[in-house]
Design brief:
The complex is a heterodimer. By secondary structure, chain A is of the alpha+beta class. Chain A has six domains: 193 residues, no CATH class; 82 residues, 2-Layer Sandwich (Alpha-Beta Plaits); 132 residues, no CATH class; 103 residues, no CATH class; 264 residues, no CATH class; 97 residues, SH3 type barrels (Roll), CATH 2.30.30. Chain A has 30 helices and 51 strands. Chain A has an eight-stranded antiparallel beta sheet. In chain A, strands 16-15-14-13-17 form a five-stranded antiparallel beta sheet, with no helix packed on it. In chain A, helix 4 crosses helix 6, helix 6 crosses helix 7 and helix 18 runs parallel beside helix 30. The longest helix of chain A has 24 residues. Chain A is elongated and about 135 Å long. In chain B, the strands form three sheets. In chain B, strands 1, 2, 3, 4 and 5 form a five-stranded antiparallel beta sheet that branches. In chain B, strands 6, 10, 11 and 12 form a four-stranded antiparallel beta sheet that branches. Chain B has a three-stranded antiparallel beta sheet with strand order 7-8-9, with no helix packed on it. Chain B is elongated, with a radius of gyration of 22 Å. Chain B is mostly beta strands. Chain B folds into two domains: 76 residues, RNA polymerase Rpb7-like, N-terminal domain (Dna Ligase, domain 1), CATH 3.30.1490; 71 residues, OB fold (Dihydrolipoamide Acetyltransferase, E2P) (Beta Barrel). In chain B, strand 10 and strand 11 form a beta hairpin. Classes of the chains: A alpha+beta, B mainly beta. At the A-B interface, strand 19 and helix 26 of A face helix 1, strand 10 and strand 11 of B.
Chain lengths: 1062, 159
């Protein structure tokens, strides 16, 4: 358009140039052109302007400058009518109002004329205006003047006085102006020059009656026409979108007030100055009016349909009304009642749900349905009680004010609904493309792949080269096209290909990344990186990115994949984070249960590091890989992410539901490989393990701790609860933290914290972290008298089993780990030495504490009593070492491994060791089979260590008759019932679960107690109640709740000492 | 695409493996460690085909472990965009129903509307990779069977 107009202008230019040279003044009568101009003038801008005729300010400008200014005006006319009016109008006024002045200021008025003409050209296009109230006479007069100027041009041309000079002049002038014209970038600068400055008249905001804005403006105009230059205002503006106010342009406030005097509906008491900066904004055209076109998505602002999505089907700009298409919310029954004149109970709160109108249904209710043809569009509508329906949609004509068209982002659901009644694909694209109408600026970036979705170039792909205000320059993909094409932003859509890795940058899925798997017009289907589910997003909301994020992964304190405790004491893993809520996989094992949980429904995060036992009583801690062997998810395998109450949350990345999480009972899992836990954590789990186990044997040997009471760990279960512990009063050494190395006396033990009175500093320190107890190392055995004694007892208990001596030390890690998993393990051999008369007191203690493996080399030496085991033992620690994959010799890791190694070591060679010892070979035999340092379950080792101990204490077998066992022999598994426990620890077992099969002798290594389930009859294999039978009435984590038959007491016992009764 | 390349790795070996069979131990450990893993850079290590060179071992302080730099030849597999592969379906999950229909149930599968072609677990399909995402330890691809000569090539159900 601008180009065409430019041509016209050029045509006009030439005569005009001449005009400059000619003397003005030759005034001619109106010709027909005048009439034309008059018509143009009639179609005024929406803003009503009264132009001040006799401008007090005389503009003296050179022709040249004027011309330039004129060009600018033209350029900006499209966007900026007000500027135009402002400049042009004023000047026009100069021509129009001040009839006489024209003669005095010839050069200026020449220009004004031209300008005015151009203006009217423009207005013709912009039209819109009613403004019939512009006095035709005035306009005529104005045009009259203009004509008068034009006339002289032509004769002037004949003069030919100096053609060359003229040419030069033209060159000079238009060389520059043409530049201005075509180079868009300079426009901004030029426009800057047009902005109001301090010297320009100001805008005053004056209050008027609501709805009378236009009227007031018109009155002022009339007043101006009547009074002429008496009224010292420049213009009046009434804006459609601004109620209650009009703007008056005047130099002084007094002028504005003066103008308002004597007029109705205007309240000039308070006149406000519009700051210069805001002046342009006052008159800039709001884009929203433009946006409202057919097929735009809008939302209703008021009424029953408030908030509902609607689609514009017709716009009536004159009446400011819009016809929209809605999904009706109509209660047919109520409607029927109403139409039949029955009583209608008005229930305000009730808003019928949106539902497509079903005409048949309406007819059934005897609602009169008329079918009518719309005279305008030719479409048929069903008319029900004055409402128009078509295809189930309600067509409603509403005021433009009652809809909002800004920033409408329909959700997929809404769009789906709209699409429902067989709208074809094309319609869909069109409707989607209207979504772009209100997308935000800066949407495209250089390098973006785009596709043209509208216009002649539809389906042309390309890349963004440059982005301007509204136009995007793209480099088309097709050959033979210009290097870059300017395309309007709204005709473009981002383009992606399947396989692209993208990131969602806005919308509900904001933040997530994934790979495009399908492109459906403007909608992409993305396979999310996190959830491995597909999500639908608008192409507009997406950018290409190689980044892999999980989307929103956090609300408040809770993060994706956290284990959380919920309100109702259930728990689960967060498997998806939505905008306001989490999806949680509940900790129910029988079937996967996911539920949506609001933030407030979450009680707290659970990040306890516990460990449980798997089906084969191996310890499972977090990160261990387990395979699920039972239940709905049988066969799945993966690392354990969380453990809570005996329930494992396993992550299997091949499991596509619930973000890969599977919830399973620990009993229905088996550990695969070994424990992967790192040293620290394992130290921890180790300690837990010990406390899980210990209750079984503590009561068993009541005489074992004759003085000191049970050691710390034996109360491990009570750690959180009771304050006092056996080791209170013990002298300890702190091995971690700021007080590392200090010795002190334990004052109090509470849960995980220990208060220690430091010997050297005379003060009491408290450690709060869970680690604290493990940070405190038992001090020299000598300083803990009760311990010493107990050890002695233990040692002396089994004088004939020298090989067991080294076993006892392992008990220490088991027993003490609650407090000191690390150092105890290490120090124990040394303690043995302390009391073992055979052992030379060799290596300095510090060595041990440093976890120096070298010290382990000495271990065989402290068992001089068992020479045969020595050579074998030497390598075993080695295998213990190998257990740490990657040779990760953290301080924490070492003792653990070594202790397990020790545990394993003796067993194969001392099969006669009675009791639980046989458990150990389990792991021991497992070890050799894992070359290359296959990580061994340290837990296993640790656990097994226990058994000999128990055996030792009881002087009896671990297994007891009448219990069900799983026999694993040469790869076969069978169930049997122990009939008799032989002296060497092996058992006579009757095969078959009911005990009806063959009788075999089974080594303890080869069998395993069948873990009882709820309501099973059980036999207690350890503890004070050893040998008693009972019923398992409940399972809580690793504890079993047992009703003992004899006493009918309900006891809580470790599941590990419970065996299913045959 | 498969490549036969030479890679290097530092192997840590426990002292108990020292001795006559040191080399074998290193190799078996290497196989255990490396085969089946995936690195974003090279792809999946399919098999070790040979050892080029085992360097001098370095004893690590305090642990007794020895680190050997090992150069080994191996076959790696790395998928590329645009590559056409034959693959076995290991799992059918509901993703994007296209021209085929998803049928859930005991044996979830995709079936064409006329029921002539069925894709289910263990089906062999030829597909074209249209996108890859390479992480440090994972390569993730998306393939299509919507092209000429792509699709099911061997259906266990039909056989």
């Amino acid at each position: 358009m601008p180009l065409r107009r430019r041509d016209e202008d050029d045509d006009e230019m030439e005569p005009e140039d001449d005009e400059e040279y000619g003397e003005e003044g030759e005034q001619q009568a109106l010709d027909d052109e005048e009439l034309e101009a008059e018509e143009e003038e009639e179609e005024e801008e929406e803003e009503v302007e009264t132009r001040r005729g006799g401008s007090s300010r005389k503009r003296r400008r050179s022709d040249f400058i004027d011309d330039v200014a004129e060009e600018d005006d033209e350029e900006e006319e499209d966007d900026d009518d007000d500027e135009d009016d402002y400049g042009g109008g004023g000047r026009r006024g100069g021509g129009g109002g001040g009839g006489g002045r024209r003669n005095k200021k010839p050069s200026g008025s020449q220009f004004f004329d031209l300008e005015a003409e151009v203006d009217s050209d423009d207005e013709e296009e912009d039209e819109d205006g009613e403004d019939d109230f512009i006095d035709r006479d005035v306009v005529a007069e104005e045009d009259d003047h203009r004509r008068m100027h034009r006339r002289p041009l032509l004769p002037r041309e004949d003069d030919q006085e100096d053609v060359e000079a003229l040419e030069r002049r033209i060159q000079q002038r238009y060389a520059r102006s043409s530049h201005t014209e075509y180079d868009e970038e300079t426009t901004d600068v030029d426009q800057q020059a047009l902005l109001p400055s301090v010297r320009d008249p100001k805008l005053w905001m004056v209050k008027c009656a609501i709805g009378k804005e236009r009227e007031v403006a018109a009155c002022l105009m009339q007043k101006f026409i009547d009074k002429g230059s008496e009224l010292q205002i420049k213009s009046v503006v009434a804006l459609d979108h601004l109620k209650n106010y009009i703007y008056i342009e005047a130099d002084k406030e007094a002028h504005a007030k003066e103008a308002c005097k004597g007029l109705r509906n205007i309240y000039a008491q308070k006149v406000m100055l519009v700051p210069i900066r805001e002046m342009t904004e006052v008159l800039s055209v709001e884009s929203k009016a433009i946006d409202l076109s057919r097929d735009t998505w809008v939302r209703m602002k008021i009424g029953t349909y408030k908030g509902d999505l609607a689609k514009v089907v017709d716009v009536d700009n004159v009446r400011q009304r819009v016809t929209v298409k809605l999904i009706p919310r109509i209660d047919l029954q109520a409607l029927a009642n109403k139409l039949e004149g029955r009583e209608v109970v008005k229930k305000k709160a009730f808003v019928p749900p949106p539902r497509f109108m079903n005409i048949d249904e309406a007819r059934e209710l005897h609602i009169r349905v008329e079918r009518r043809r719309d005279p305008m569009t030719g479409d048929y509508f069903e008319n029900i009680g004055g409402m128009l329906f078509k295809d189930g949609f309600l067509y409603k004509t509403v005021s433009m004010k009652s809809i909002s068209a800004q920033n409408i982002k329909p959700t997929f659901d809404e769009l789906e609904k709209f699409r429902k009644p067989g709208e074809n694909g094309d319609g869909d694209i069109a409707s989607l493309s209207t979504l772009f109408a209100n997308r935000k600026k800066g949407h495209f970036m250089k390098g973006d792949a785009v596709i043209v979705v509208k216009g002649d170039l539809k389906n042309l792909k390309g890349w963004v080269e440059k982005v301007e205000e509204d136009n995007v320059h793209i480099r088309p993909e097709m050959k033979g096209l210009p290097k870059t094409l300017a395309v309007h932003e709204k005709e473009l859509c981002k383009y992606f290909e399947p396989g692209n890795h993208v990131k969602v940058v806005s919308g509900t899925q904001e933040g997530s990344t994934g790979m495009v798997v399908k492109v459906e017009q403007h909608v992409l289907i993305i396979l999310s990186d996190t959830t491995k589910e597909h999500i639908r997003v608008f192409a507009d909301d997406v950018v290409e990115s190689s980044e892999v994020t999980t989307g929103v992964t956090r609300i408040g304190d809770y993060e994706l994949h956290d284990l959380v405790l919920l309100d109702n004491m259930s728990f689960g893993v967060i498997i998806r984070v939505e905008s306001e809520a989490f999806q949680v996989l509940k900790g129910v094992t029988d079937r996967p249960e996911a539920s949506l949980v609001k933030l407030r429904e979450i009680k707290c995060k659970l990040d306890k590091k516990t460990s449980v036992q798997d089906r084969f009583k191996n310890t499972v801690s977090v990160k261990d890989v387990v395979r699920i062997v039972d239940g709905p998810c049988r066969g799945k395998q993966g690392p354990v992410e969380h453990i809570y109450k005996g329930v494992l949350f396993v992550y299997d990345r091949h499991h596509l539901e619930h973000a890969g999480f599977i919830c399973a009972k620990s009993q229905s899992c088996v550990i695969v490989g070994g424990s992967r836990g790192n040293g620290d954590r394992n130290g921890d789990s180790y300690s837990r393990l010990s406390h899980l186990r210990t209750p079984s044997h503590i009561p068993q040997s009541p005489k074992r701790f004759p003085r000191g009471g049970p050691p710390i760990d034996s109360r491990g279960r009570n750690r959180g609860g009771r304050g006092h512990d056996g080791s209170t009063g013990a002298t300890v050494k702190i091995c971690k933290g700021p007080f590392k190395g200090y010795r002190g006396r334990v004052k109090e033990i509470k849960g995980q914290t220990v208060r220690i009175e430091l010997e050297s500093q005379m003060k009491v320190v408290t450690g709060k972290s869970t680690f604290d107890r493990s940070c405190v190392s038992d001090n020299l055995a000598v300083t803990t008298p009760y311990r010493d004694t107990s050890r002695y007892g233990m040692g002396s208990e089994t004088p004939m089993h020298p090989s067991r001596t080294p076993l006892h030390p392992y008990m220490t890690p088991m027993r003490d780990p609650g407090a000191t998993p690390i150092h105890d393990g290490m120090r124990t051999p040394m303690r043995d030495r302390a009391w073992n008369p055979y052992t030379p007191m060799s290596p300095p203690r510090d060595n041990w504490e440093d976890g120096n493996p070298a010290s382990w080399g000495t271990s065989p030496q402290y068992q001089p009593g068992s020479p045969p085991s020595r050579p074998y033992e030497a390598p075993t620690p080695g295998s213990g070492w190998a257990n740490t994959p990657g040779g990760n010799y953290s301080e924490a890791g070492t003792p653990r491994d070594s202790s397990s190694a020790y545990a394993n070591a003796p067993s194969p060679y001392l099969p006669s060791t009675p009791g639980g010892q046989p458990m150990t070979p389990n792991s021991a035999s497992y070890l050799p089979g894992t070359p290359g340092g296959q990580p061994m379950t340290p837990g296993t080792g640790g656990l097994d260590v226990m058994s000999p101990v128990i055996g030792g204490e009881n002087d009896g077998p671990w297994f007891i008759p009448d219990i069900l066992v799983n026999i694993r022999r040469s790869g076969e598994e069978s169930v049997g019932v122990i009939r008799e426990v032989l002296a060497d620890g092996s058992c006579r077992v009757v095969l078959g679960s009911s005990g009806g099969g063959d009788m075999v002798v089974v080594l303890p290594v080869e069998m395993e107690v069948v873990v009882p389930r709820k309501n099973d009859r059980i036999k207690i294999m350890g503890g004070a109640l050893r040998g008693s039978t009972g019923k398992l009435i409940g399972v809580d984590g690793t504890d079993g709740i047992v009703k003992v038959d004899d006493t009918l007491d309900v006891k809580i016992l470790d599941l590990a000492i419970l065996a299913k009764l045959a | 695409m498969f490549f036969h390349i030479v890679l290097e790795r530092n192997m840590q070996l426990h002292p108990r493996h020292f001795g006559r069979s040191l080399r074998e131990n290193i190799v078996s450990k290497l196989m255990k460690d490396v085969e089946g893993t995936c690195s974003g850079r090279h792809g999946f290590v399919v098999a070790i085909t040979g050892i080029e060179n085992i360097g001098k071992g370095l004893i690590r302080d305090g642990t007794g472990f020895v680190t050997f730099p090992v150069k080994y030849q191996c076959v790696v597999f790395r998928p590329f965009k645009g590559e056409i592969l034959e693959a076995v379906v290991t799992m059918v999950n509901k993703l994007i129903p296209d021209d085929m229909e998803f049928q859930s149930g005991d044996m979830p599968n995709y079936t064409t509307s006329d029921g002539s072609v069925k894709i289910q677990k263990d089906s062999e399909v030829r597909l074209k990779i249209i996108g890859t995402r390479v992480d440090a330890t994972e390569i993730f691809c998306i393939g299509t069977i919507k092209d000429d000569f792509l699709g099911v090539i061997n259906d266990p159900a039909a056989a």
